[in-house]
Amino acid sequence: MCTFAAADDDNEVSWDPMKRRIVLAGIIGRYPVGGVAWCALHYIAGLQDQVLEVFYLEDTGECGFDPVANGISNDPAYALRYIRAVLKLVDLDQQWAYIDYRGIYHGKSREEVTAVCRSSEAMINLSGGTWFARPEYDGLRKIFIDTDPGFTQGRITDSGVYQFFASQDALFTFATNVGRSSCTLPPTPFQWHPTVQPVALRFWPVVSPPPGAPYTAILSWKVENIEFSDGKAGDILRMIDLPKTTAHPIVLAIAGHPPTALLRSHSWNTVDAMAATISPSAYQEFIRQSRGELGFAKSMYVQTNSGWISDRTQCYLATGRPCLVRDTGSTLLPTGEGLLTFRDADGVRAGLAAIEADYERHGRRARELAEAYFSTDVVIPDFLDRAGLR
Questions:
Q1: How far, in Å, CA of 322 to CA of 291, rounded?
Q2: Rounded to whole angstroms, how far apart are CA atoms 318 and 331?
Q3: How far, in Å, CA of 333 to CA of 330, rounded?
Q4: With contact defined as beta carbons under 8 Å apart, do 207 and 217 qualify?
Q5: What is the per-residue pLDDT for 110?
Q6: Contacts from 117-120 at CB under 8 Å and sequence distance 24+?
Q7: What gap in Å lies between CA 279 and CA 192, rounded to an integer?
Q8: How many Cβ atoms sit within 10 Å of the Cβ of residue 361?
Q9: Distance (Å, whole) CA 178 – CA 196
Q10: Distance CA 133, CA 155 (A)
Q11: Would you tell me how many other CB atoms lie within 10 Å of the CB of residue 347?
Q12: Count of CB atoms situated within 10 Å of the CB of 368
């Protein structure tokens, strides 16, 4: 990989002249957990495969979560160690900058970041990796990827947020139904392009689940907003007795403040999601130790018929794990083999029975779906074309 470095007083940057370069702004340090890390890693790996050099930037203006302190911390030490370790997986452990809530630069200096931006042609802003319009970002083509459809669009009524989105050159969203009459996301004056999280399949080889492996879910337990307050928690509570009527164990890896005693009294197995999926490797191992995914979705995604597809589901599919997920109205890919949907407890029981009737076939189909619809080789070229970067 090329090394970005200030070469003289004009902060010129040395690079491989045969490669174009992109700044990717992410939230690895803000939310230092395996799933969030993989979202950024997949984009970085996919862009690198397209012969693009990538520089990682994080500039959210917020303090990050520190698992050691078990809370939000104004000390960025954990975030800095985590970012470096994560980016080493894609050879970027020397090619990054983290700007903390005080505006102090870590990793690369402000002068080096300015030089990097001058030599780059675009900033891809993944899930709000930056909300600032700093002078060093001037001249970059700006692409925003919304990973939380409905909540993002709902914020645009705020004048400051509106101005931020108005400054972007292209807007993408994980609401695959955006623009359709059936999709009821909050309206905005901007055009949103549907996209999906890419998956670098080389990180996710197909492996067989161990004997007795459970179906698993990774989720946060929290109340959303007043209008959409049920969320994943509401779905689980409505099917509280589900584990007693299924043949295979179900494990919920839950972050937040779940009613653990209540869930366990109804035969749900629970583990701490933060501990179980804290790093990219722990996240991978949790999925490998699963027989399949039982995937839940936020009410916003469901009630707006957004067509949202979870990045977690994509990783399960890539590993050859059948997925049974909450129906969000997506028509992007076929369901029934490898990927099945549910709306209630009866749907879950029927889906699990269908998977178990021919588990090997559903596992093969899961990987085929990941290859056909989510591979970086499929998603990234299309994304670059529509973002005006090809």
A1: 8
A2: 19
A3: 8
A4: no
A5: 97
A6: 117/23, 118/11, 118/13, 119/4, 119/13, 119/15, 119/21, 120/21, 120/22, 120/23, 120/55
A7: 32
A8: 13
A9: 12
A10: 18
A11: 16
A12: 14
- Write down the H helix ranges in the chain: 34-49, 77-87, 110-119, 151-154, 159-166, 231-238, 260-265, 273-276, 280-288, 299-303, 311-318, 345-357, 359-369, 376-386
Return all residues near 372 (Cβ < 8 A) that are at least 6 apart: 333, 378
Question: Which domains are present in the chain?
Answer: 20-198+376-386 (3.40.50), 202-374 (3.40.50.2000)
Dist CA 15 CA 1 (whole Å)? 9
Res 6: pLDDT: 35
Rounded CA separation 56/47 (Å): 12
The sheet with strand 269-272 has its strands ordered as 269-272, 250-256, 215-221, 292-295, 323-326, 339-342
CB 133 within 8 A of CB 163: no
pLDDT, block means (10 residues), the chain with 390 residues: 35 62 98 97 98 97 91 96 98 97 97 96 97 94 97 91 96 97 96 98 97 96 54 90 93 93 95 96 98 96 97 98 97 96 97 98 98 98 95
Quote the tokens at residue 343. Answer: 């709306």
User: Could you tell me which residues come within 8 angstroms of residue 70 by beta carbon, excluding any fewer than 6 positions away?
Assistant: none
Residue 285 structure tokens = 């191992």
Entry pTM: 0.94
Query: Counting runs of H as helices and runs of E as strands, what totals does the chain give?
Result: 14, 16
Q: 28: closest CA among 44, 14, 39?
A: 39
Residue 152 is encoded by which pair of tokens? 């993002």
pLDDT computed for residue 159 by the predictor: 85
